Amino acid sequence: MKARYISQGSVTEVILEHQTYIHVGLWSRASSVGVTVDTTPPIQGDVICPSHIRTTDDLKCSWSGFYDAESGIAYYLFAVGLAEEDDSVYPFTVVVPPEHDYTANGPFEHQTYYVTITAINNVGDSTNLFSQPIYVDETPPVGGRVVELTGVDEQSFQFGDGDVEERLHCMTFEDCISEAAICQKSLDRILVAWEPFQDTESPIIRYQLAVGTSPGGAQLKTFYDVDTNNGLFALITGINLYDVRQAFVSLRGFNAAGLHTTVVSNGIFISRVSAGLPPLNGSYVWDGNGEEDLDYQDTNEVLHGQWSFDGDPCPKLKYEWSIDHINGTVVQPVVETSDEFGMNDGFNMKNGETYYLVVRATNLLGYASSLRSNGITIQLEPLAPRDVRDGAVYGFDLNYQSSITTLSANWDAFGLHSIEAIGQSGGQVIDHYEIAAGTDKRYPNTRDDIHRFVDVGLNTSHTFTDLQLIPETWTYYVTVRAYAVSTAMVEVTSNGIRVGFGGELLSQGQINIQRYIPSTISLTVSWSNFRFVLPVLFYNFGIGSNTSILHSLSCKDLQTPVFSEYHPDKDVGLQHLFQEWTEVGKDTLVEQTGLNLEDKQTYTAVVMATDESGHCSLVSSDFTVDVTPPSAGTLKIGAFEGEVIPVHVDEVYCSCAVYRFATLIFWVELWKVT
Known about the structure:
The protein has 674 residues and is mainly β. Helix content is 4%, strand content 41%. The protein has seven domains: 5-37, no CATH class; 46-134, Immunoglobulin-like; 146-270, Sandwich (Immunoglobulin-like), CATH 2.60.40.10; 283-378, Immunoglobulin-like; 388-499, Immunoglobulins (Immunoglobulin-like, Sandwich), CATH 2.60.40; 505-625, Sandwich (Immunoglobulin-like), CATH 2.60.40; 629-674, no CATH class.
């Protein structure tokens, strides 16, 4: 027999015996091992299944404690159904020991399920075990509110959970709402409370907290499980709020299906001033009502101010501001306001004198801090307009130009430039210029229809490029706006320029000057034959000693202005090249006097012609200064030195051998013998 266990009868063990007779009178006997008789089913164990799952989850259950002393457990059957012993959802499946868990793959519909575990012993007897109802929940919990609480700044507030419970100022969440904090000065902890999350389908089983610098963020502390045995509150520690403006607490609530909802607090501001720390950047008091701090204004009837104390993130309860004279006299007593600006038009300020604002801010924690402005000076002098000249030739107004892709303009300073204003008084100080190009100076919308206004700083010339201008048809205008530091502004438009004219040289000129001149203080130079398509507008003449550089220059190099830091409206680019560089109008002869030339030194004379379109041509010529007379030599007549030779007394000219009659510069070409 093969059966080790049987289920018949009441005997617990049976032994089978077999005898064999051999014809020679011998017997053979054999006995089986014991056969256990099992008449009872297995003893029930325990089954563990989740109480709630999502529709997309797999259903995993495990079991233990099934026992059969007689024949043991042969296998298990696992099934999922809509009732106990039902396998309509997941049919009975064999699980062979020692395996004691099984996973039914999802998805599942939104219903209630039961798991049936059947344990079958080795004689076929079975025992069923059923799970608790398993609910499918696909909706997350409904979140409650979370708030930061006051009291965390109190010195007696400790870190232990029991102390937290004792120090809470509220017993219900509604009470906690009234204790909600907007600011705190603590830099390493936040106290929070929250109301319970709600879920009608599955219970809330745990909460998690995180702290970040943005709503929903976890930059300061990542999500961690919270112990809620003592209530729905927590003291969050282990955070660094030293450089944080506002911290936000995020709270997650999980239901039994593993679904969660996150809610975020309104945030709490960290008040550095209240903690005795310097404010973060962002605090200031500005004079004026513009987009930046003003140092001057051109009216003495009203004074504006604006301020920001954002360096202390805690919202402000109130501001108190006053106006003081530079000598310390209080012009306006303290005025309380909730605004971040102020205005006083009830007094007359004196021209040239300085006033400043003093502002004190009190935050919601009751801490106050004060700042003062750097002062504003009353400057009633008008901003003087200046001529705006068309063309790229600095200092000249052109009516024509050859280029149809560029427009240039230059102008004199409308007032004092910042670097010049040091140590000076009177006149407006220029902050910057703006320049635009248009087709008609009469209307605002046509003054910048070629190119909009651009900020050019303190430059007093500018060129627009990459334009598409119509040749020989339109007149184009350039408009310059000058803005003073006092906010005053004046606008001037040029008299216009036409494009597509000139730009062609017909004849290169020539310069007429002696190769050697006998004077260090005077010089006469003339020139001729400069011819352009348009008439010559003016000539420039100059004398320089750096001949190699001067011969390599082009006339455009000399037309391009160069401005220094200390003279931003004065062309200083030619000072190091010439002793003299002057505009001589249309004259073609110059008699220079008062020069400072050196003997035996070579110089270069430069003449530049410019026509009415700004087109130019340049010629140059070298000359040498020689003011030294020839040195005396000797005359030898005859075969021997000192020999007396009679000659006729009449004055004659002859060719003779002459020695040592020479200058450093010239060869002597003619001698007179008497």
